[in-house]
Amino acid sequence: MARKTSSLTAIIIAVAFVVGIAACGGGGSTNPSPTAKGYIVLSWNNLGMHCLNPTFQTLAILPPYNTLWAQVIRKGEAPEVVTSGITVEYSFAENTYSAASTPQKTDFWTYVKQLFGADLAPDMGLAGKTLSGQMDLVGDHFEAVGIPLTEFRDADATAGGDYKTWTRYPYQLATVIVKSAVTGEELTRATVVAPVSSEINCSNCHGDTGDATTSYPITPSGTENVDLNILRIHDFLSATTLEASQPVLCASCHASNALGTAGVPGVNSLSNAVHGHHKDLADITPDTDGCYNCHPGPVTKCLRDVMTTKGEVAGCVTCHGTMATVAVNANPWLNEPRCDSATCHGARYAQDKALYRESKGHHGIYCAACHDSPHAIAPSREANDALKFTAFQGHNGPIDTCSLCHTSESGGIVHEEDD
Known about the structure:
- By secondary structure, this protein is of the alpha+beta class.
- It has 12 helices and 13 strands.
- It has helices at residues 108-116, 154-157, 203-206, 211-214, 226-238, 270-278, 288-291, 306-309, 316-320, 323-326, 367-371, 383-393, and strands at residues 13-16, 39-46, 50-51, 59-60, 66-74, 80-82, 86-91, 133-134, 136-138, 141-147, 171-180, 186-197, 248-249.
- The strands form 3 sheets. Strands 1, 2, 5, 6, 9 and 10 form a 6-stranded antiparallel beta sheet that branches. Strands 3-12-11-7-8 form a 5-stranded mixed beta sheet.
- A hairpin with a 5-residue loop joins β11 and β12 (186-197).
- The longest helix has 13 residues, at 226-238.
- The radius of gyration is 22 Å and the shape is globular.
């Protein structure tokens, strides 16, 4: 979550473009061609992976809060971005609820009032969106911010047990449909990955017998309640009383740009505090596997972009640096690696904004619309990320087919510095 639309907001980037393929799937489809009526919708998620806590009864780091962006283009000799006379809808055919039915996929709504001060109906997100609805026009694009999505499809939720034992499906698929605002006629559609994972993997160290738990004179939870063990360590080290204040929103004291919270003056930001506390641990390797001790994760493997799969970068630390580097980032979430840095692509891929996820290039099209989200730069390792590209141009990889938008080749793909 990153740019704010309320006291708790955030945005992200995830990406996709479209479908002649079923909205959640793989298999054939009777959906119309993405360009049959002369419109194209380029749609993406604003982060490479949205995270949420697996349970909220003890503490909360991040709520369910996924986000989709879209730009609609009318094909022509000089293609144009369309923002009027249309509506843009989104839905999840295989993931239609999070808590409004049973079995519930998360206990977030049980504790949302205590954590965020919001009195929400089940399946209503913190920014007012549900799992289907209309995207909002924001300048030159459309957004659906704060979708309360989990990584469990409806079919996973009927498999018995509860969300702690279900199979994760972190690369969820949304359908984005553009319609005429006058007639309601469908103009184009897209299948879009909305990545989400609750695989925040603190259990490696903070389980009842983990090194972090047993290194301090605290009483382990006795039930493998990792979050409770963390609160007890925090109380011991910082003389707080968090265990008696459950559920605890970490960002209420530790500032979080992701949530838009200011925290308590003099207290480190959440990112700085967590990375700073763990930066010297010898058993956490300074590589992607080390990052997966906390970030999603050994199952999710959220870093999946072409640079990693082709071996051009070593992983997380190549772009973000070690934990010691992240621990001193004065503005985490808003000060992130740039594509146009001297050590990466340089001016050839110049960003017009500080963040890649907010940058635009070719004729006002967002970089992520053609290249995909951070951590998922095309071609991604994940088959679901490829659906949009294959539907539009018959092959995976970033959009490089000029005729997708242009009626002639005269407007070929040019980056900002060449315009």
